[in-house]
Design a protein that fits this description.
The protein starts with 11 loop residues before the first helix and ends with a helix. It is built from four helices and no strands. About 65% of the residues lie in helices and about 0% in strands. It is an all-alpha fold and about 110 residues long. The chain has two domains: about 1-60, no CATH class; about 65-105, no CATH class. The protein has helices at about 10-25, 35-40, 50-70, 80-105.
């Protein structure tokens, strides 16, 4: 197939696929970067009974727990193998507990 953009090495199929992605983003509600969007989305919209401190109380322990784990990584005997193993173990534990939750509760 002859390329319309031989200088850049781009084929017509590549350009068409990128255009299709752009069209899908617009159809999915992506409206771009506008000041109206920022004004509408910047203020908090808490659910009834929620406030800043109740939401922060959920976020803060998760962030500080991750940071505490990162700070302790220097104490590991073999960080280059222990960190990936610990990360995968944490992801596996998360998958297992969420699966159990959804099986039992939902």
């Amino acid at each position: 197939m002859h390329s319309v953009f031989p200088v850049y090495g781009l084929s017509e199929n590549f350009i068409t696929s990128q255009f299709n992605v752009f069209v899908v983003l617009l159809a999915a509600g992506f409206t771009g970067y506008r000041s109206e969007n920022m004004e509408n989305n910047a203020p908090p919209k808490f659910s009834e009974g929620q406030n800043f401190f109740s939401v922060f109380g959920v976020f803060f322990p998760s962030a500080t727990g991750v940071l505490a784990g990162i700070n302790m990584s220097g104490d590991l005997k073999d960080p280059s193998s222990n960190i990936p193993a610990g990360t995968l173990a944490a992801l596996g534990f998360r998958l297992e507990t969420s699966t159990m939750y959804h099986t039992c509760i939902c």
